[in-house]
């Protein structure tokens, strides 16, 4: 039997299994009816046509965009200043070198942000009068750092803290910049987590409490797992955003990918290195997005009751 | 539509999930203004049969007709077909972010383009009939199970479906609330609504069904009038199933 790939394809493979691996004694000598074969033939034709249309439409759109850009009056000049292969080759290794700093910052700050954000979110959902000050502090923290522009936060921390000339406090712009990033992003992520916690239906908490779980256990084992899963896309959004903002630590003098490109630009007065740096950042986020999509889709499949609609 | 064309007809319907065959060679006819009850153990394929009829699942093989038009044809407009079929689910599946009235008027307003005022008026009449007149503005989570299920029935009825599919609609309710939901179904039968229902309420099936089908491992093992299937079952399996039900005190 032929297997139709695409929208309706998955059932067919199962049937091949049916015919051959069926439990012994199950008198099910199933042979696909002509009706089914005809239906599959029709779907195959449809799938093929859909692919053809998609390809054609992509081709036309691509050609139109290309012509639009290339026929622009300033194109030759733009090409020279933004898409010069020689400068791209020169800048690429330096940008990559700088990117290593961005990556390290992303990993360390990302982990710190997730932990801190989660703590703040949980602090905001704690009940009981004892926790009142904690709730207020957590709320004040998110209000303040979500509202404070990141660039100002960075300048205060990266330039202001060393100006205090405190003993034992670092003046390393990367460490200070990372701290500022963590402060701001924890506030964002805390709100994402809180929204997730509040989106879990109260009946789930009721079911958990009915089993004798304490409020904390209910939060830990029932509410948070559902909340976090639901918030993966917005969390990823913030993570990507953080990754780009790691470039801002360059205001303290650290050399990251953007700053590396900047240096080449300053020397050559050609903007190609910026394009290179931009594309490198884009290339970094795409696998991350695809990976989370894949994880989410897989868990969805394992839970769904089946069905096409 | 002439009365001799069945509202729903299934012919050798087959459905598999993974490696297991959930429906095999199912034939079924539901005549206009009649009620067909599907009985059988859990996992015998009742719900899947209903989901296939409501085009919530694709059949693997075989065909299904609604009013003589094949709905399993890949060329058929599936949304148009679903517009003519009402489904009531075991878990109600009301939309928690809408009031009862909004739940009921959603499809009339957005799908059938009924003006808001008229849709709301019709919804209120429907709710009044189902004894929920005072609950129109409430959110589903504030209602009892029986009230939620009646609201779900109202939602399915609001588009005046040709066929109503009821999937163990009382399974999540306690006996006291079962009664109020079954009363609604009884009324609907009085109005001549064509219904296909999966149920564990044998007494109710016996009373309300014109045709009873006993499903066993995905096949229709026995079918007939309620008197035939309950009074004088021919198949051994049916007899055993009914005996178990009687022992459990459910008939």
Automatic annotation (TrEMBL), chain B:
Coiled coil: none annotated. GO terms for molecular function: ABC-type amino acid transporter activity; ATP binding; ATP hydrolysis activity. This is Polar amino acid transport system ATP-binding protein. It comes from the Bacteria. Keywords: ATP-binding, Nucleotide-binding, Transport. It comes from Streptomyces griseoloalbus. Gene3D superfamilies: P-loop containing nucleotide triphosphate hydrolases. PROSITE patterns: ABC_TRANSPORTER_1 (PS00211), ABC_TRANSPORTER_2 (PS50893). Belongs to the ABC transporter superfamily. Residues 8-242 form the ABC transporter domain.
């Amino acid at each position: 039997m032929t297997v139709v790939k695409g929208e309706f394809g998955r059932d067919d493979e199962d049937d091949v299994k049916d015919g051959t691996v069926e439990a012994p004694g199950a008198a099910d000598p199933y042979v696909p009816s002509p009706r089914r074969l005809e239906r599959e033939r029709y779907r195959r034709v449809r799938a093929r046509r859909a692919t053809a249309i998609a390809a054609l439409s992509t081709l036309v759109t691509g050609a139109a965009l290309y012509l639009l850009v290339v026929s622009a009056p300033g194109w030759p000049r733009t090409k020279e200043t933004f898409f010069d292969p020689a400068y791209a080759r020169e800048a690429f290794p330096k940008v990559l070198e700088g990117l290593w700093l961005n990556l390290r910052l992303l990993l360390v700050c990302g982990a710190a942000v997730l932990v801190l954000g989660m703590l703040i979110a949980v602090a905001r959902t704690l009940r009981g009068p004892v926790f009142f000050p904690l709730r207020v502090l957590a709320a004040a923290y998110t209000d303040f750092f979500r509202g404070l522009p990141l660039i100002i936060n960075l300048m205060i921390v990266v330039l202001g803290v060393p100006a205090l000339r405190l003993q034992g406090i670092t003046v390393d712009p990367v460490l200070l910049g990372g701290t500022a990033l963590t402060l701001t992003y924890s506030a964002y992520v805390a709100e994402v987590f809180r929204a997730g916690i509040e989106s879990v239906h109260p009946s789930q908490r009721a079911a958990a409490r009915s089993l004798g779980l304490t409020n904390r256990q209910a939060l830990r084992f029932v509410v948070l797992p559902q909340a976090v899963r639901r918030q993966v896309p917005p969390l990823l959004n913030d993570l990507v955003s953080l990754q780009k903002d790691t470039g801002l630590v360059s205001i303290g003098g650290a050399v990251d990918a953007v700053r590396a490109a900047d240096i080449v630009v300053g020397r050559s007065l050609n903007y190609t290195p910026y394009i290179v740096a931009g594309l490198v950042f884009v290339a970094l986020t795409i696998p991350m997005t695809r990976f989370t999509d894949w994880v989410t889709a897989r868990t969805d499949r394992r839970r769904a009751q089946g069905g096409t609609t | 539509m002439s009365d001799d064309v069945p509202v729903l007809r299934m012919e050798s319907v087959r459905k598999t999930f993974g490696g297991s065959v959930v429906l095999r060679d199912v034939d079924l006819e539901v005549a206009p203004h009649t009620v067909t009850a599907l009985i059988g153990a859990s996992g015998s394929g009742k719900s899947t049969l209903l989901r296939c009829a409501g085009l919530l699942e694709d059949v693997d093989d075989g065909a299904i007709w609604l009013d003589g038009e094949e709905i399993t044809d890949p060329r058929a407009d599936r949304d148009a077909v679903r517009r003519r079929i009402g489904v009531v689910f075991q878990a109600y599946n009301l939309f928690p972010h809408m009031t009862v009235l909004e739940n009921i008027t959603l499809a009339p307003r957005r799908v059938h383009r009924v003006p808001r005022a008229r849709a709301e008026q019709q919804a209120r009449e429907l709710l009044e009939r189902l004894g929920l007149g005072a609950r129109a503005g409430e959110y589903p989570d504030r209602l009892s199970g029986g009230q939620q299920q009646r609201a779900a029935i109202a939602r399915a009825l609001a588009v005046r479906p040709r066929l109503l599919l009821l999937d163990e609609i009382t399974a999540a309710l306690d006996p006291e609330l079962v009664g109020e939901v079954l009363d609604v179904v009884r009324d609907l039968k009085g109005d001549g609504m064509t219904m296909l229902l999966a149920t564990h309420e044998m007494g109710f099936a016996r009373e309300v069904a014109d045709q009873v089908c006993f499903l066993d491992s995905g096949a229709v093992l026995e079918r007939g009038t309620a008197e035939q299937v309950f009074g004088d079952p021919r198949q051994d399996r049916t007899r055993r199933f009914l005996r178990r039900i009687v022992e459990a005190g459910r008939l």
